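Put briefly, the fold is written as integer tokens. The lines below illustrate.
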Amino acid sequence: MFDINTEKVKEVLIKSEYIAKSSINSLRDVVSLFNDEREIKFFNDSIEDIINNFNILDNLRINFNTDENLDNLNPIIKNSIYKTIKEFITNSIKHGKATEINIKISIENNNINLILTNNGIGCNKIIKSNGLLGIENRVTSLNGSVNYFSNDNFGFGIDILFPILMGKV
């Protein structure tokens, strides 16, 4: 193609560069909205705010499912779940190239179960960088457990279990 129509190739490359830079800037804008620390009073509304902020990205759908009102959880647990969800969404877009993310929160046997999945590229070998290590540190500091699951081309997921030791639902 380069030998046949050099100008067309240049045009495509310029457009590709613009799209890449624009996408990176959009992701930075979304992430910057989350940098402020705040007390989470209305948990489900706060998660919906995260989802709405990411809705500026055209090719992303985020599904949120919970049967519970989680406002009465201990603030430390709510903040940990909130930060974990933000990190998961950011990693799903940045590393996984996901177009669909699922967030499910349930309470079973005095435990909070948070399941996060995406339809991204996945991986056969999970490499824990700052994001995943941060998630693990937050969860284990609250006596919780983290299990990752992924395969190449089949997305990525995290199954987290928190005991409800410091708060009541």
Notes: The helical segments are 6-32, 43-54, 75-94, 130-140. The chain has a mean pLDDT of 84. The beta strands are 61-66, 100-108, 111-118, 145-150, 156-163. The longest strand covers residues 100-108.
